[in-house]
Amino acid sequence: MDQEMNMKFMQIAMKYLPEAKEMLDQKGIEIDMENLQSVLNLLMQVMGDAYELGKQEAKQ
Question: Which of these, 34, 48, 54, 56, is most buried using a 10 Å CB contact count?
Fold first, then answer.
């Protein structure tokens, strides 16, 4: 995946990260910035997989 797409995914993930943190806070799950980075990386992997799947389906 190219750097430009990675940046777009990062922007999308950052958009939803506060909502994810709020959900965790409401459940009493404390998470620091280092652990949030892990969540952010996971979100980016999910978006990358979804993007690749969409790209494959568009070719069909």
Answer: 48
Kindly report the number of other CB atoms within 10 A of residue 9's CB atom: 20
- Residue 10 CB neighbour total at 10 angstroms: 15
Measure the CA angle with vertex 47, ends 45 and 55; round to 5°.
115
Q: Helices 33-59 and 3-26: crossing angle, nearest 10°?
A: 130
Amino acid at 34: E
Can you give the residue range of the structural domain that contains 7?
A: 1-29
Q: How many domains does the chain have?
A: 1
Instruction: Render pLDDT for 24-59 as a digit per residue (tens, 0 to 9).
Output: 899 999 888 888 888 888 888 999 999 999 999 999
45: its two tokens: 């992997």
